[in-house]
Task: inverse folding
């Protein structure tokens, strides 16, 4: 279960892979005990943490924060040159992390885990897990059973209850210290308006009747966006009260998206596919990335340039809104899951082989 998100970047059949793996490792009589153990066991300190599988990377002020397998969280205060391990209350794999400022941040992962930090990632507290998430989904679905589509949402919640609390969260978005969303497999989406002290299931607000996996969530202006498998593309124009499906320019899975400072939107996914929109998703232009590797991460650089990174370690730089790309190979030499620009303008990356720093002058821009 350590590299499910990497598998997601390799195949549109990731949902099937997750199900098969879950069945193999979650045999009756063992699953419940295993689930409780990893949700209660703190991440173990290890000298090999920097070489572990890492799946998420974010900036917390001037600090870099990386997350990955077995609950590992790493902190760097020197632009990725050195790292140290933080204290984490669970040992499940973490898939994504975001900070709204230098102190407040959240991380999500397997078994429906949501973690929160108030001290820049030094220590973390669990706010949600799969058991509580499913119980909440059933409770809200029973309450709203007489609403439009209420019966189908209740049936979906009960199926989640029967399946067990093993569904991972894969991404998150917080607009500030109070308001945020977490999203994941099988249309899982939860919302908080109090900084994560409480979470509401938000599935009935999303136009996703097939229950497709949600891989990414971001904001662009006043709009909120979701992307997922099979070209799933959804937009909310009413502060998240409803997410409407849009006609997608691509039938393969989207694994992430990026809203730029000038109001453009970039979505990216399988086989080097990336698309650009300058009109809030009404029309799309395919970006000629020139690669066939799955795109794993996108960053807007400080100088306004665009960086796309593939899981194979290819770094694609564009300074003309994606009309052309300059391809370079990451110095990490391994599979990439996420990249981030450090405070000094250099690039840091994480992936299957851990953390790496790329001192690339093309990534530097004026503050």
Result:
């Amino acid at each position: 279960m350590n590299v499910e998100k990497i598998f997601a970047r390799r195949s549109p059949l990731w949902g099937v892979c997750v199900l098969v793996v879950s069945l193999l490792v979650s045999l009756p009589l063992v699953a419940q005990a295993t689930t409780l153990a990893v949700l209660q066991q703190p991440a173990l300190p290890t000298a090999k943490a920097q070489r572990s599988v890492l799946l998420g990377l974010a900036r917390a002020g001037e600090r870099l924060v990386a997350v990955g397998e077995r609950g590992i969280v790493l902190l760097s205060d020197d632009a990725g040159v050195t790292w140290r391990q933080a204290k984490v209350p669970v040992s499940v794999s973490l898939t994504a992390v975001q900070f709204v400022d230098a102190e407040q941040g959240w991380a999500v992962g397997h078994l429906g885990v949501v973690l929160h930090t108030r001290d820049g990632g030094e220590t973390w507290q669990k706010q949600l897990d799969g058991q509580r998430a499913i119980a909440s989904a059933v409770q809200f679905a029973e309450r709203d059973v007489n609403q439009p589509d209420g019966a189908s949402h209740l049936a979906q919640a009960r199926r989640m209850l029967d399946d067990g609390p093993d569904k991972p969260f894969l991404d998150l978005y917080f607009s500030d210290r109070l308001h945020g969303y977490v999203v994941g497999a099988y249309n899982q989406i939860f919302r908080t308006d109090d900084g994560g002290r409480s979470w509401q299931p938000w599935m009935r607000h999303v136009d996703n009747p097939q229950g497709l996996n949600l891989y990414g969530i971001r904001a662009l202006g006043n709009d909120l966006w979701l992307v997922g498998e099979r070209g799933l593309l959804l937009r909310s124009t009413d502060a998240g009260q409803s997410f409407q499906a849009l006609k997608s320019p691509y039938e393969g899975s989207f694994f992430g998206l990026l809203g730029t400072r000038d109001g453009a939107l970039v979505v990216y996914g399988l086989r080097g596919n990336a698309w650009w929109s300058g009109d809030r998703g009404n029309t799309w232009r395919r970006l000629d990335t020139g690669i066939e590797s799955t795109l794993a991460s996108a960053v807007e650089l400080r100088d306004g340039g665009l960086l796309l990174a593939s899981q194979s370690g290819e770094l694609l730089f564009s300074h003309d809104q994606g009309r052309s790309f300059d391809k370079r190979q990451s110095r990490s030499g391994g599979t990439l899951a996420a990249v981030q620009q450090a405070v000094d303008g250099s690039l840091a990356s994480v992936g299957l082989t851990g953390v790496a720093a790329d001192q690339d002058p093309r990534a530097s821009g004026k503050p």
